[in-house]
Write a structure and sequence with these properties.
mainly beta; six-stranded parallel sheet; 6% helix; 36% strand
C-alpha cells in the first residue's frame, strides 16, 4: 500500500500559499505567527486588501537555525498587491523580529503595491529575483552598520554572481536610495534601466526616495 503524507497548516493563508492560487486577506488572517512558504513550482497571488499582516512580541518568527527569516519565504513565484481603495494593506512584523519577505532557491517575487515594514531589511533576496514595481518599504529595527542602508538587500555572493537580483521600477523607500545604496557595496544600484530614483519627500526624517520612469 502506498504511503500518504498529510501536511497540516497553521492557517488558511499558509495553506493557500503552499498550494498556490490567489488569496485575499480578511480580518481573521491578520495575525500570522509562523513563516509562510510559497514552495518551488507554485504560483501564489496575495491581495493585502487593506489589512495589516503581523505577528506579536510573544510569537517571534525569526530563527536563523531553522531558516525562518520572514513572514513569507518565496521559493516559487509570489505576487503581492493591495487592492483596497485606501491602499492601507501592509506586512509589518513585530519590531525586532523578522523581514517582511525573502526570496530563496530561485524564487520570484513581484510586488505591485502595499507597505512592507521589516526589521533591518524589508525584502531580502538570498537566491532568486525580487521585482519591485510599487509599494512602500521601510524598516522598524535599524541596521547597526547603516540604519536605512539595507531596506532592500541581497546575499552578497549571490548578487555578485548574478543569482540574487533586486529589480526596482517603482515604489517609495524610507531613508533608502535604491539607486545608490550600500547594500551590496558602496554605490549599489537596484533601479533598472530606463528608470531613476529621486527624493520624493525631502522634508521627512529620514528622506523618502521614490522610483519612476525617465
Amino acid at each position: 500500500m502506498a504511503s500518504r503524507v498529510v501536511k497540516y497548516f497553521y492557517s488558511k493563508l499558509a495553506a493557500a500559499a503552499y498550494n498556490g492560487g490567489s488569496y485575499t486577506l480578511a480580518d481573521e488572517d491578520e495575525v500570522q505567527t509562523v513563516q509562510i512558504e510559497v514552495p518551488a513550482g507554485k504560483e501564489f497571488t496575495l491581495d493585502l486588501n487593506g489589512k495589516t499582516l503581523h505577528n506579536t512580541m510573544t510569537t517571534h518568527i525569526w530563527n536563523a537555525d531553522q531558516g525562518n527569516w520572514s513572514h513569507f519565504t518565496v521559493r516559487g513565484k509570489m505576487t503581492i498587491k493591495d487592492g483596497s481603495p485606501a491602499g492601507t494593506g501592509s506586512i509589518t512584523p513585530d519590531p525586532n523580529d523578522c523581514y517582511a519577505v525573502d526570496v530563496r532557491e530561485g524564487g520570484h517575487l513581484i510586488i505591485e503595491s502595499g507597505s512592507y515594514n521589516g526589521n533591518r531589511t524589508s525584502i531580502y533576496v538570498h537566491e532568486g529575483t525580487a521585482e519591485i514595481k510599487g509599494g512602500k518599504f521601510s524598516v522598524q529595527q535599524q541596521h547597526p552598520t547603516d540604519p536605512y542602508g539595507y531596506v532592500i538587500d541581497c546575499d552578497n555572493t549571490n548578487y555578485l554572481n548574478g543569482t540574487a537580483k533586486a529589480l526596482i521600477s517603482g515604489g517609495s523607500f524610507v531613508g533608502f536610495n535604491p539607486g545608490d545604496c550600500p547594500a551590496e557595496g558602496p554605490g549599489t544600484n537596484f533601479v533598472i534601466d530606463g528608470y531613476h530614483s529621486y527624493i520624493s519627500d525631502g522634508a521627512a526624517t529620514p528622506k523618502v526616495y521614490s522610483v519612476k520612469q525617465n
